[in-house]
Recover the amino acids of this structure.
């Protein structure tokens, strides 16, 4: 499956998170101007995917920084400007619903 | 005799207690309310204090006067909830056993969670308006202020009454205009959200009003710290916003007793079934109001609809019947927009705020998603309704706990 063949929503998030793989993550990262995905990036991506599969919902930034092993400062440097949205996109997950 | 314990006598807990004493047989059920404060605050009124519209006397009443005499009130802080032992241990180590527990412990601002917020400028150039003290200090400050840069900042979502920061901005614009110094005040709004509000149609409408009022919005600003010496707020990605006065809406958290009891999530909100309002973990515990983790605004206007649903489900549970009543996420909020006008929004889990009339189609008298004088009167009338009708557990005529599409129009 190539990234061009995959259905996406208006914000560029994958329509089906099950069609995601690590190669696609790298391409999505490039779209977000992140050239290489480091181990720390993967910590966050894998945490998001695990949470999403278990709870059918994305964790808050607070939860990510508490449980993924990446602190807030680093999270913002890994995924500049809106880490919740950016990390979710690269992880092949829908856009965070944001708040209420 | 069975113990029905309500933990917290804020808006939700007070309405609930007053309704239950009328529905349950006093010979069979003892209703106990545990509350740490002897005074009850009309929290929606805090918004008006910085602008001199309301004073203390408008927003404070003794808890004793608001609860039915048939309720047993314990004024003490709860230390820990022990669901396995079915009891609550208080700060003074007295344990109160329960057969049924309703948690209505609300939430609070936690300025200590943001670096530099509660330091040298706190309550001097940095104020909150979610506490009576903060709102009163801000009133004193604004009274003497000659102008400069005023920044309103939301630290992190979710917050209590997500519309209140916008109302504050609208009222600040009105206040400085009346004072004749609006041209000397630069009003900035820094928010972690990507729009002015959380729901698309309302967000667009409110954002147009902000532009019209010459209020600048800085989106996706996630505050990391306050630099007290430079008088700036700094985001996690190092954006800096200078201020002369900062109005902060600090991080909100559920009550500490929830954290101590390990009943909540990372912000001490309790996992709650979105329809029945029962705890996801314990069948004899129900949760209502700001204490839940539900994806709906934290506000009294939400809590009072939840109470109607909760009362029915609680009684079904007591009678060992299935819980059939379903909360739909209904919220209804008057938004003060300044210059004697207001906006009304009415929505639920699935339907965002839409234009139209409320509560009756065509006749209104209130207009949804539109600035009118009548909506402003609705907002100002609400204080009387709150103290005299709502908290006493009486029904507000024509207002139903479930949202209705009657009177609403989709603009698309």
């Amino acid at each position: 499956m190539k990234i061009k063949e995959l259905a996406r929503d208006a914000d560029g998030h994958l329509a089906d998170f099950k069609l995601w793989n690590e190669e696609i993550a790298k391409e999505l990262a490039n779209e977000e101007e992140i050239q290489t995905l480091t181990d720390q990036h993967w910590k966050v991506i894998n945490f998001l995917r695990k949470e999403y599969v278990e709870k059918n919902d994305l964790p808050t930034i607070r939860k990510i920084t508490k449980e993924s092993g990446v602190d807030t400062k680093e999270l913002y440097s890994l995924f500049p400007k809106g880490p919740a949205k950016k990390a979710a996109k690269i992880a092949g997950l829908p856009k965070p619903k944001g708040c209420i | 005799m069975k113990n029905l314990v309500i933990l917290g006598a804020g808006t939700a807990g007070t309405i609930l207690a007053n309704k239950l004493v009328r529905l349950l047989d006093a010979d069979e059920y003892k209703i106990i309310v545990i509350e740490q404060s002897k005074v009850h605050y009309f929290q929606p009124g805090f918004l008006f204090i910085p602008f001199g519209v309301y004073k203390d006397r408008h927003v404070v009443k003794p808890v004793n006067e608001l609860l039915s005499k048939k309720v047993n009130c314990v004024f003490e802080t709860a230390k820990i909830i022990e669901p396995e032992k079915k009891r609550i241990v208080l700060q003074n180590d007295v344990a109160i056993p329960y057969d049924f527990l309703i948690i209505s412990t609300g939430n609070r601002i936690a300025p200590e969670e943001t670096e530099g917020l509660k330091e040298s400028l706190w309550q001097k150039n940095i104020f909150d308006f979610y506490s009576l003290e903060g709102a009163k200090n801000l009133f004193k400050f604004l009274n003497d202020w000659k102008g400069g840069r005023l920044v309103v900042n939301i630290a992190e979502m979710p917050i209590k009454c997500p519309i209140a920061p916008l109302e504050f901005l609208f009222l600040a614009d009105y206040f400085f205009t009346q004072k004749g110094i609006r041209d000397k005040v630069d009003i900035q709004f820094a928010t972690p959200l990507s729009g002015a509000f959380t729901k698309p149609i309302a967000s667009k409408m409110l954002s147009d009003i902000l532009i019209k009022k010459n209020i600048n919005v800085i989106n996706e600003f996630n505050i990391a710290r306050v630099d007290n010496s430079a008088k700036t707020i700094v985001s996690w990605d190092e954006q800096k916003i200078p201020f002369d006065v900062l109005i902060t809406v600090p991080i909100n958290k559920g009550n500490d007793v929830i954290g101590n009891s390990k009943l909540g999530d990372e912000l001490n909100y309790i996992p709650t079934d979105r329809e029945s309002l029962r705890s996801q973990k314990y069948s004899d515990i129900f949760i209502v109001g700001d204490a839940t983790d539900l994806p709906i605004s934290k506000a009294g206007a939400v809590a009072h609809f939840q109470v109607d649903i909760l009362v029915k489900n609680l009684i079904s549970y007591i009678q060992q019947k299935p819980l059939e009543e379903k909360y739909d996420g209904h919220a209804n909020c008057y938004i003060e927009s300044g210059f004697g006008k207001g906006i009304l929004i009415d929505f639920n889990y699935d339907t965002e705020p839409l234009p139209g009339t409320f509560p009756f189609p065509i006749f209104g008298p209130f207009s949804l998603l539109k600035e009118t004088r009548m909506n402003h009167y609705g907002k100002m009338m609400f204080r009387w309704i709150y103290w005299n009708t709502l908290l006493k557990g009486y029904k507000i005529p024509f207002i139903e706990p479930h949202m209705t599409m009657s009177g609403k129009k989709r603009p698309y």
User: Anything to note?
Assistant: The interface with chain A takes residues 156-158, 162, 193-194, 198, 220, 222, 224, 236-237, 265-267, 295-297 of chain B (CB under 8 Å).
